[in-house]
């Protein structure tokens, strides 16, 4: 609202800061219960002085403000947008929702579209902050700490500080931005005023190591310059040590791609036969149906090394069994191990696993406290030149491996299962379901187990369009936040 309009407003609401959502929420509730219309309110942010304040009562005795629960979470996200009119806009949305409870589902409505656009901008800015904050070391020994400078587009520091606490719990760090700063001393998180770039330290020795790492993980075969610049806008380059390498890496991409293809491993992996010999040829292997129930997960994992319940064992390098604590509240079930999992013997360590880990961390789900497994324990693939291409397990293979899944669940006794994709859903529910239509739903089995339906993270990797990929990643992140809520319920 412009200053001239503020003079005409019947009520002026003063917020403590640009991110004072709690203050806005309390004021909005009181205003709505007192039937104060949006056009009669002026919203201001305090500038350090002690401004006059309207003291509004709670409203008529027994009156309640009822709005969709979804709006509160979405409003809290949009509140971080830099749009100076966001306070008035969100109150207008709240005012409308009292009479139009289905407003958020009307995609053609101008206010609904504006809310979605603001949310998307804040989420994208948060994603950039997670990706492009680079810490620099200052001090040594007891004085050692790490400082980073970042320039977000929106007021997102407070919103994302907990992410960095979880990611860098063991080190003392400070993130400086023009609007606010976040400081973690190893025990306490403090949000302070903004800073100048000159307050951040200059380059440190670790940046040489980081540039070496970036140069080695750069994949020239997947280079798309326009998409890269869209995901990593040039405004961030001046704060990224690896940015100095980008021009030369782009210039040499074609030559590097040819060399990389020439170095690709043969099929199967060179140590494939040795691993198979260790797991298969030196053991008395049981036939399907002869497996004996184990008393612990380690015993079950050892027994699974000799599984011949379906023919997939013949070509796979080894059995890839589940991992996680025996008392996990939730079990994540994927489809099958991929090429890297087949070689490493561990679930979710390949590209999809890295996406999975990153989103779990962002959603506040500690992977160390959950159990991760697959519906099928052996890698099914088709040789194509020197590569092994993933091939979807059929219903018979899923059913054959169901014995191991059932044993895992019987020993762990989780409160919730998360089906990552259609194959996992088939294994857990015994029938095929449309994952895209039932995504986000919880299905309760006859034995009382709750099964949450969502996609497999590999689906995100297969999307080529950057905007669509980011949108799908955000949907999966919302799914994982819902899983966190269900875990706590």
Describe this protein's structure.
- The chain has a 5-stranded mixed sheet with strand order 3-4-5-6-7, with helices on one face. It has a 5-stranded mixed sheet with strand order 9-8-12-14-13, sandwiched between helices.
- The model is unreliable at about 1-10 and about 280-290 (pLDDT under 50).
- Helix 15 crosses helix 16 (about 420-430).
- It is globular.
- The chain contains 19 helices and 14 strands.
- It has 4 domains: about 5-125, no CATH class; about 135-200, no CATH class; about 205-260, no CATH class; about 270-489, Uracil-DNA glycosylase-like domain (Uracil-DNA Glycosylase, subunit E), CATH 3.40.470.
- The chain has about 500 residues and is an alpha/beta fold.
CATH fold field value of the largest domain: Uracil-DNA Glycosylase, subunit E
Structural class computed from helices and strand pairing: alpha/beta
Mean pLDDT: 84
| Biggest sheet details | 5 strands, mixed
Unreliable sequence segments: 1-8, 280-290
Rg over CA atoms, rounded to whole Å, is 27 Å
Short structural description:
The protein has four domains: 3-126, no CATH class; 133-199, no CATH class; 206-262, no CATH class; 272-488, Uracil-DNA glycosylase-like domain (Uracil-DNA Glycosylase, subunit E, 3-Layer(aba) Sandwich).
Structure characteristics:
489 residues, alpha/beta, 5-stranded mixed β-sheet, 19 helices, 14 strands, 42% helix, disordered N terminus
